[in-house]
């Protein structure tokens, strides 16, 4: 099993619904967020290109955060997701410094927190909150090992990119271009 | 033109607008750890060489301060933790790939050994020292029989401690400025240089000061070489490392780094040490104090600038 997510940059309008859905679903403390929108403007007027990306933890296959964690609090879980065990985390910040996507933060209670791919929902057969709520249906979630999953099918059909693959992280968040 | 912006208002504390997860605690600890490692290395090395009488400050006096230095460093580390009550989790795991993990274990080993070494030599600082309890006296007597193996253990562990302070940072490929394998040796050499400086400050013998000034001079030369080598590597590397080095080559850290760290912390003390060796009248305290100051500032600048260097946005 290999959970992954694909985001269609041609469909995403940058409404931030995914951000709010995540904050609500996961009780994210006020002033924090686990996902965010990046807007890329390329070119000079009038030849402009616009790209919207809904970003979050890349659940990397070669995760620097798991490698750098001194206690094993950051670990690989079901479907290759990267998770943090609260009561093993000492809040040293090594994983935060090691993440090239800056996807982690320190929860006000002291432990490090991040996107979980809404594993609690996925285990019940639901979609992650951000995917479920997207008004343009620009996000696809599923198991890459299953050729019939939404994410496998869309990645087969479309061209895609990942963010800074040259950082050697093998990210599992695909951006359809 | 290309502009990449986070437009959903992400403002995670200590992450945005730019990473600042580590404040003064970490660079201060890196300095104290490097300083203690340097002192302990010279103490154990010259003890093994049988030069305890020739270099009493290095072998006996200076290491008395190392348990305090390491203890203070550990206190800073604890203050830096955000989930403090779980700090003991460091010692329920050993992760070979995490420099922080084996650094924690190294500290666990070298801290008691440095205290034992201090106990051996406490009378050189306080001649009237009395342990009061016989059991302590007996324990020290037993341990003194193993003084040479203890010295060997301290020597090896001090090198690990010194180099780990640099590897800790260089293991983060997310921060291009830190992500160079030169950083380990550079921090080790810098730590040993600050250790030599501390010994010069504490020493009352001119011959001993002279030896350590020579050692310090060699270490400063290696440090300068490694710094130039590091920037050559950055300039010849990928775009993110070129950008990271630009902070020091024209960017905001240019003046503090080249004037204060390299100039005042390395070049001037080296020049003063050379002049002193040629028997010019120079107060011997100036050079080592500058070395200590330069070492401290070097770690602060590397810690702050490293967190500013990044891949995205």
Automatic annotation (TrEMBL), chain A:
Keywords: 4Fe-4S, Iron, Iron-sulfur, Metal-binding. The keyword Metal-binding applies. Residues 3-32, 48-79, 80-109 form the 4Fe-4S ferredoxin-type domain. CDD domains: PsrB (cd10551). One of its GO terms (molecular function) is 4 iron, 4 sulfur cluster binding. This is 4Fe-4S dicluster domain-containing protein. Pfam families: Fer4_11.
From TrEMBL, chain B:
It is a multi-pass membrane protein. Keywords: Cell membrane, Membrane, Transmembrane, Transmembrane helix. It is found in: Cell membrane. Gene3D superfamilies: Formate dehydrogenase/DMSO reductase domain. The keyword tRNA-binding does not apply. InterPro entries: Electron_transfer_protein, NrfD-like. The chain crosses the membrane at residues 26-48, 60-79, 99-120, 150-170, 182-203, 215-235, 255-275, 282-305. Belongs to the NrfD family. This is Polysulfide reductase NrfD. The gene is nrfD.
């Amino acid at each position: 099993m290999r959970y992954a997510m694909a985001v269609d940059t041609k469909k995403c309008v940058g409404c931030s619904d995914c951000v709010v859905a995540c904050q609500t679903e996961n009780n994210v403390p006020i002033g924090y967020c686990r996902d965010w929108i990046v807007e890329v403007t390329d070119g000079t007027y009038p030849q402009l290109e616009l790209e919207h990306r809904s970003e979050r933890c890349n659940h990397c296959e070669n995760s620097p955060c798991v490698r750098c964690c001194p206690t094993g609090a950051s670990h690989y879980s079901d479907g290759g997701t990267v998770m943090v065990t609260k009561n093993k985390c000492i809040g040293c910040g090594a994983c935060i410094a090691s993440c090239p996507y800056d996807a982690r933060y320190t929860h006000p209670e002291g432990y490090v927190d991040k996107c979980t791919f809404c594993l609690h929902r996925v285990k019940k057969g639901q979609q992650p909150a951000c995917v479920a709520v997207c008004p343009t249906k620009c996000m696809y979630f599923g198991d890459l090992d299953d050729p019939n999953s939404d994410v496998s099918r869309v990645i087969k059909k479309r061209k895609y990119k990942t963010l800074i693959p040259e950082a050697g992280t093998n990210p599992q968040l695909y951006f359809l271009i | 033109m290309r502009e990449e912006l986070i437009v959903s208002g992400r403002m995670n504390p200590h992450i945005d607008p730019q990473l600042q997860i580590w404040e003064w605690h970490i660079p201060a600890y890196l300095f104290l750890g490097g300083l203690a490692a340097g002192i302990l290395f010279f103490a154990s090395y010259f003890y093994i060489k049988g030069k305890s009488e020739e270099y009493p400050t290095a072998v006996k006096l200076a290491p008395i301060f190392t348990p305090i230095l390491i203890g203070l460093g550990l206190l800073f580390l604890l203050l830096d933790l955000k989930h403090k009550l779980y700090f003991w989790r460091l010692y329920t795991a050993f992760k070979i790939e995490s420099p922080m993990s084996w650094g924690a274990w190294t500290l666990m080993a070298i801290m008691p050994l440095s205290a034992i070494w201090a106990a051996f030599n406490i009378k050189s600082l306080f001649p009237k020292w009395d342990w009061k309890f016989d059991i302590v006296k007996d324990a020290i007597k037993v341990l003194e029989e193993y003084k040479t193996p203890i010295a060997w253990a301290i020597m090896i562990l001090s090198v690990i401690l010194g180099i780990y302070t640099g590897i800790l940072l260089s293991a983060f490929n997310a921060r291009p400025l830190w992500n160079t394998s030169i950083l380990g040796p550079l921090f080790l050499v810098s730590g040993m240089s600050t250790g030599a400086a501390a010994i010069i400050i504490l020493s009352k013998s001119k011959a001993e000061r002279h030896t350590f000034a020579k050692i310090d001079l060699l270490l400063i030369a290696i440090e300068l070489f490694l710094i130039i080598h590091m920037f050559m590597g950055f300039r010849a590397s990928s775009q993110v490392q070129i950008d990271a080095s630009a902070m020091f080559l024209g960017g905001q850290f240019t003046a503090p780094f080249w004037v204060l760290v390299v100039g005042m912390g390395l070049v001037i003390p080296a020049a003063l040490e050379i002049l002193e060796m040629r028997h010019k009248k120079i107060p011997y305290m100036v050079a080592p104090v500058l070395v200590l100051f330069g070492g401290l500032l070097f770690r602060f600048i590397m810690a702050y600038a490293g967190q500013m260097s990044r891949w995205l946005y």
